[in-house]
Structures
1.
Amino acid sequence: MEYIRDCRALAQVILSADGTDITATTTDTFGLTSENIFLMPDRSLNYTDENNNRIFLNIPAQLVYRDTVTQQFTFTGLFFSTTAAYSNN
């Protein structure tokens, strides 16, 4: 299992919403890791929305498994806020 303490990994994702449930699915198959699991630390990502407002996309800590068909990771429980929910330490 791979754990990135100094998180400098980059991944492209597609955000999806089903009601209030927001998920992010990777689009670059091996951008995060070549392993089949990834331990995602909690992170708050600075984001500018379509109205030029500064908001945060918050991703709670989670262990994600690579989908056996698509080979992608899907992160769940994401939410937006006006302040960072996590300290990113």
2.
Amino acid sequence: MATIYLDHNVIANIAGIPAAADAPQVGANVTALQARGHRFVLSAWNMYELARSNDQQHIDQCCAFVETLNPLWLSDSTKVKRQEVDRFLQPAFDNVGPVRNRNFSAFNETVAAMWASYGEGGRHDETFTSSVASLRARPEFLETVDNSAKETPEAILIGRRAFRNGGEKLLDGIVDREYLALSLPAGAGSQQLKFLIANRNKLLSVSPALAVEDAMSKLRVRDSFKPEPADAADLQHAMVALGYCDHFVTGDRQLAQHCSSVVRKLGFPCHVCRKVSDIPVND
């Protein structure tokens, strides 16, 4: 069984308004992959992007299509990264964190379980459709996410200026220390933080989501593309999906290029493609 992450633009092209010209063919590809037992994967960011639409028919059609997928749901990327840190610390600090001798999965079978990974309670029968409706009923929440996303272009530009001025290593050290401090498990402190910083490369080698975030952030600083607010959602899409899924499908050419560069750099097996039809049915 392969796991196939679908970016929002893929869903919109298949089921939305207007649908892409090849939507019937791609829909048939989806059905064939499902028949072979492959699982499609989505995240809360698919819900957020659809909830921002003002076209109710478009929303309804996309929701109806998603419900036919019976997808797996990615956990909150922050939780996944903290679990990766927990797992790395455990052998050296076996009194830290609750995950000793326990594997974790980045996937959830239900929407309710996905929301639980964010610390959000919900009904056990929560669906993609009901979650999109709930998000649309909370415009203040969507506005908060939008405002946070608007800070991403400036953050990328600041990183580029530091890189041009020879300050990348200094910037890396500050980001690493502050970032890893936020990822420490309950009860951990300065000793564990020093251990993470001293073993940063080893931590990244066994922590897929952390490694993707690190590599993608550095690629964006070095690249010359024009940063946009949408780049915030793109990073959230990519972090866990590239680290834990077999395939990542996006119609966004730039995102596909960035993701392909990241998985090549990290040596990850995830296959990045622009169309569902690029995935062999018998894979």
